[in-house]
Amino acid sequence: MSGFDKVVTDYASALQGLEDGMTIIAGGFGLCGIPEGLISHIKTMAVKELTIVSNNCGVDGFGLGILLEDKQIRKMVSSYVGENALFERQLLNGELEVELTPQGTLAEKMRAGGAGIPAFYTATGYGTPVGEGKEVKVFNDRPYILEESITGDFAIVKAWKADRFGNCVYRHTAQNFNPMAATAGKITVVEAEEIVEPGEIAPSEIHTPGIYVNRVIKGTFEKRIERRVVAKENV
């Protein structure tokens, strides 16, 4: 079994090989389902000039937002950037390159990259700045733009459960971008709440097969709520 055991016990081993200028694909949506410990260790590593592909860039002081503090990110490829004041400042000051991508297109870019599909056509973005300069083709009298897929040097994802072979289960909405991201990295690292023995996850329950995963580490998660909204008590 040892030859198939992908569990590592420290973050340095989990992110071994990560260097300046690499592209990281990160799972999560807002602060839901983000690999908190892996992100924190990337900050500790002080790698620079990173391209980060993720739905968003965390918030000020948490999630991917902490990588902005020392300007470790050169470019963000994302679909939503509205909860991070530091992100906004760096963008407006020309310190951060941002490639805004429609959310569904971003998900499909990851999925296609993981499936070995170099590009695909989508109607989303046609006739907008998103579609400028991109090839257009008409199918059934409707124009579509050509979008290239995405792969990364590393993919970092968060799982609810993973076994030692790398098979993963995501919990509820924490599935979000994690399954697509997990397939699109040359090296995929899973940070899991719980690591179980092979066979404890039923095959029908597996969201990401271990064939896509290179390393698994057990994490401890704060699971911070991005924005808490409560109903006002009736007076």
UniProtKB/TrEMBL annotation:
Matching PROSITE patterns: COA_TRANSF_1
Pfam family, one: CoA_trans
Key words of the record: Transferase
GO molecular function, one term: succinyl-CoA:3-oxo-acid CoA-transferase activity
UniProt key word Heme: no
NCBIfam families with a match to the protein in the record: pcaI_scoA_fam
PANTHER family recorded: KETOACID-COENZYME A TRANSFERASE, SUCCINYL-COA:3-KETOACID-COENZYME A TRANSFERASE
Record-given protein name: 3-oxoacid CoA-transferase subunit A
Organism of derivation: Alteromonas profundi
Lineage of origin: Bacteria, Pseudomonadati, Pseudomonadota, Gammaproteobacteria, Alteromonadales
